[in-house]
Amino acid sequence: EANVASNHQVASNIKWSQTFLSSFKYYQVASDLVFSDHPFPSLSQLSTALGGLSGVSEQEVEGLRPVNLLQERNLLPLKRGTPAEPNLSSNLRKMNCSPDTFRCTLSSIPQTQALLNKARLPLGLLLHPFRDLTLPVITSNTIVRCRSCRTYINPFVSFLDQHRWKCNLCYRVNDVPDEFMYNPVTRSYGEPHKRPEVQNSTVEFIASSDYMLRPPQPAAYLFVLDVSHNAVESGYLNVLCQSLLENLEKLPGDSRTRIGFLTFDSTIHFYNLQEGLSQPQMLVVSDIDDVFIPTPDSLLVNLKESHEMVKDLLNALPAMFTHTRETHSALGPALQAAYKLMSATGGRVSVFQTQLPSLGAGLLQSREDPNLRSSTKHLGPATDFYKKLALDCSGQQIGVDLFLLSSQYSDLASLACVSKYSAGSIFYYPGFHHVHSPAQNLKLQQDLHRYLTRKIGFEAVMRIRCTKGLSIHTFHGNFFVRSTDLLSLANVNPDSGFAVQMSIDESLADTSLACFQAALLYTSSKGKRRIRVHTLCLPVVSQLSDVFAGADVEAITCLLANMAIDRSISSSLLDARDALVNAVVDSLEAYRANGSNLQLSGLTAPAALRLFPLYVLALLKQKALRTGTSTRLDDRVFAMCEFKSQPLKQIMRLIHPDLYRVDNLTEQGALHLNERMIPQPPLLQLSAEKLSRDGAFLMDCGSVSATLTNSIQVCPTEIPALETTASERTRAFVSWLQEARAFCAAFCVLKDEPSAKSSFFQHLIEDRSESAFSYYEFLLHIQQQMSK
């Protein structure tokens, strides 16, 4: 029944021209537009040309304003992460789902597929379903759902009277259960429309036994650790064991929480941590071709009961393998052992690996050829071992997270499959050494703190439903597709994002609203079965002008990034890059062609899409999609993994980092938080012309923040704490940036010298590089493509 592809295609005959709404297929459009020096038209002229505006908000009128990109080149995102609000009544808008959780590429849904094709923009959703937030939790014997399509009752249903409600997705009329007549918030009877689940678009239900296939599992954590010579030399064990000791009490769970450890080199070492032993007991299995569990009960132990034994092991582990001469890595057999150990309960496996697996099942050969670093063959896995193992794990509710800390090629394209298909996370620390790479060392410490203490959901499934007439056909993210629309997530964490592509199968002419609902069913670390439900409501429009005015350029860019990653693996990197350029050409041509009685000069975009060419150029310069042989294969593959699994905000920071000057911060426009003054310097264009030798500049790239300075006394991982106003303001600003994200960014201070500058300058995407256009050249290239 299940198609086990991470990016599931429901029907194999969905062509790119359909899935990408023609954006990935280049073709020309005849146009009678005259390119001349005529002044830009007024909004009313433009609106008339594009078929009239249907009473949209001022914000959307602004989204339609024509922008001459060749003249207005100093463009920057005004407010990161805040899309145009959909054109809904104030009441619906107030109750709508937060864009941080649920975003659509188009905040006005076209009435027909034909209208969508005309706009040549992709239609899809971006989700961050398990993010950290405060939300209403509802305990009720009856969870009210549509009897036909199983949609959960939400703010966008309509009550025909006190006893009947109409589903907003399939329009079936349902009965209101008697229990729903009582409102637990107001303690009043007879007002079903005031219940919390009808007043909030994000809610969480405590689920009944109907939503359980078995009793909720306990939180279970297994750590699988590479202890080969390479691993010991890197020093990661000290960092990990220290972090675990500091955070052992904070691991999410309850009195049933279980924990275990497994180490490996050319053999596999289990640890008996049974309460009552005088010290942890190591059990070695050397037959890696037929892995077995040496004792069934004392390897995955109750954390509360064996707390002291676990601490003893963590204190001892870093020194246990100090003098090892073992250079081999039997990662595959170690993962098979982990699967056998965890199968009875399910849970989370955290794998730490430092090299290419060299023994037993899943062994890999080096494929890193400096001349073939972008070939499609090497971007996919060399073996299906890790994918098959991940699918077995997913079936037993085991999620596998991978920490790769390598100084050499480790074939991440193959190893990543174990996390991709088991709904795991991937962490990558190239060239990690606890002494020689202080920035990476600090990042690992901070990542581990977040990783070990963040909330977690076990044995989860997620389903996305949408209004009748719309359909979902492709999913992006780390998961296993159990049936056509059910995503299996053995583990779910608050830092993972997902994307889906959609098409319009039937006309939506009979409705003015389109709704989307994501329901995530999971077991909390405390053993409670919960259902988190998010519902998004958007207007349906019949005019092309409304579609353009409501385009969400950040969501469009992130969806295209996911599609381009798939394309580069299934076809070629060159194809993916061409498709991205064509997506810009197509949308700008559609805007121009359908306002064909206007005489627009230059290269014109609607204001809502004015950053589209800049973001696509930035995408083309990312490690995931850039050409040339300078990008190491593992670096490229990790960048691809990030695009496929991160939430929108994080992806946008990777694509278009934020650049600030930080040596002259003032109080002007500052935020005042808890008696702290946080300076708010203006964003700068990502161009070397914005830098100066006498300044200090901070580049916030999402996972790394780098400061370029000419100061002589610099520490590589922090800003010196001087008792000066300038120092206090800079540190306050950097701390605020760090606090605003789940994982701390690695922070490094770079001196203004050639060897250090290259890592900073590679993010200056508006400038020309050896193999890529400058922003101005890219605009000219787009204009040239449009005039063919």
Automatic annotation (TrEMBL):
Residue ranges annotated for the Sec23/Sec24 helical domain, each copy included: 552-652
GO terms under biological process: COPII-coated vesicle cargo loading; intracellular protein transport
Domain Zinc finger Sec23/Sec24-type positions: 143-180
Keywords linked to the UniProt accession: Cytoplasm, Cytoplasmic vesicle, Endoplasmic reticulum, ER-Golgi transport, Membrane, Metal-binding, Protein transport, Transport, Zinc
InterPro entries recorded: ADF-H/Gelsolin-like_dom_sf, Beta-sandwich_Sec23_24, Gelsolin-like_dom_sf, Sec23/24_helical_dom, Sec23/24_helical_dom_sf, Sec23/24_trunk_dom, SEC23_SEC24_subfamily, Sec24-like_trunk_dom
Domain Sec23/Sec24 beta-sandwich, chain residue ranges per copy: 457-541
Domain Sec23/Sec24 trunk: 216-452
Bilayer disposition of the protein: Peripheral membrane protein
Ligase listed as a keyword: no
Gene Ontology terms, MF aspect: SNARE binding; zinc ion binding
Location(s) in or outside the cell: Cytoplasm, Cytosol; Cytoplasmic vesicle, COPII-coated vesicle membrane; Endoplasmic reticulum membrane
Gene3D superfamilies attached to this UniProt entry: beta-sandwich domain of Sec23/24, Sec23/Sec24 helical domain, Severin, von Willebrand factor, type A domain, Zn-finger domain of Sec23/24
GO cellular component, one term: endoplasmic reticulum membrane
Family in the record: Belongs to the SEC23/SEC24 family. SEC24 subfamily.
Protein name: SEC24 homolog B, COPII coat complex component
Gene source species: Electrophorus electricus (Electric eel)
Source taxonomy: Eukaryota, Metazoa, Chordata, Craniata, Vertebrata
Name of the gene this protein is made from: SEC24B
